[in-house]
UniProtKB/TrEMBL annotation:
Protein name according to UniProt: AMP nucleosidase
One GO molecular-function entry: AMP nucleosidase activity
Gene Ontology annotations for the cellular component aspect, listed alphabetically: cytosol
EC number per UniProt: 3.2.2.4
Domain of life: Bacteria
InterPro entries (alphabetical): LOG_fam (IPR031100), LOG_family_nucleotidases (IPR052341)
Originating organism: Polynucleobacter asymbioticus (strain DSM 18221 / CIP 109841 / QLW-P1DMWA-1)
Catalytic activity: AMP + H2O = D-ribose 5-phosphate + adenine
Length: 285
């Protein structure tokens, strides 16, 4: 049997844009004569992946600087949580036992949505007391629904700037409506998106979530463990969830991490507790 190793195991930009091979072949003079920077077909080739990496790094970096944003608090968490208002509506409209069960779960999880919303508002109220832009901390999320929407919403409703780093997905995820104008970004590459999560982050606040939240959380912890970034507070909201999902204590006992690796991790239950850790860490007024 011949080995069936894939030539490429990633979704390329040509796959994502559904470009046929003939659309990037550039066989006519009209096509080949275009400026390279104005030629979408050329920029979508596999060989230009490095250029696309650079562009995804540069665009948000330049625009965030133009908006005077130097410091962020990055908030992670499940896309599946909804507001209490939405959960109550689901409960009211439930017609089957399955729908009622789903509504009850949504109502339980809505406490995290409302907490993230409160946290966004707390940060925004702090920013309102600061005249110097370099002292402000802005809410930054993945730009989608759930906890991301809630944190953006809390800050947005309090009149503050909020940032969303969205990502292209097979089932397209649209930016939530609580991201400030000019601060909603779209990425194709997770690596570049995660880099931007960290470039200005002065704290990480993680609510219960799934694979994506765990991926982002452990990337942050690894960067600090390996001294690629300065230590920042990593705040896990919902201690019961996090301690059940990840037995950090057992990892220390087993010898795969050190007790020192736990010094930046804080378990809290409420938005004010999360803010107090950040406030004390940076001695904010």
């Amino acid at each position: 049997m011949s080995p069936k190793l894939p030539i490429n195991n990633a979704q390329t930009i040509t796959d994502f844009l559904n470009l046929h091979k003939s659309e990037i072949s550039e066989e006519t003079s009209d096509e080949s004569y275009r400026f390279a920077f104005d030629d979408e077909a050329f920029l979508a080739r596999r060989e230009t992946i490095g250029i696309r990496f650079e562009l995804e790094l540069l665009k948000p970096e330049i625009l965030l600087k133009e908006h005077g944003i130097e410091h962020t608090i990055t908030v992670f968490g499940s896309t599946r949580f909804v507001s209490r208002e939405h959960a109550l509506e689901l409960e009211k409209n439930a017609k089957t036992p399955e729908e009622l069960s789903t509504a009850h779960k949504a109502l339980l999880h809505s406490a995290y949505y409302e907490s993230a919303r409160d946290f966004g508002a707390i940060v925004a109220h702090y920013n309102a007391t600061q005249d110097n832009k370099s002292n402000k901390l802005h809410i930054c999320t993945g730009g989608g629904p759930g906890i991301m929407e809630a944190a953006n919403r809390g800050a947005f409703e309090a009149g503050d700037q909020t940032i969303g780093f969205n990502i292209s997905l097979p089932r397209e995820q649209h930016p939530n409506s609580y991201i400030s104008q000019g601060l909603s970004f779209r990425f194709h590459y997770f690596a570049l998106r995660k880099m931007h999560f960290m470039l200005r982050a002065r704290a990480i606040v993680a609510y219960p979530g799934g694979f994506g939240s765990f991926d982002e959380l452990f990337e942050v912890l690894t960067l600090m463990q390996t001294h690629k970034v300065l230590p920042i507070p990593v705040i896990l909201v919902g201690a019961g969830y996090w301690r059940e999902m990840i037995n950090f204590k057992r990892m220390v006992e087993f010898g795969v991490i050190d007790e020192a690796d736990m010094q930046t991790i804080h378990f809290v239950e409420t938005a004010p507790e999360a803010w107090k850790i950040i406030k004390d860490w940076y001695q904010l007024g």
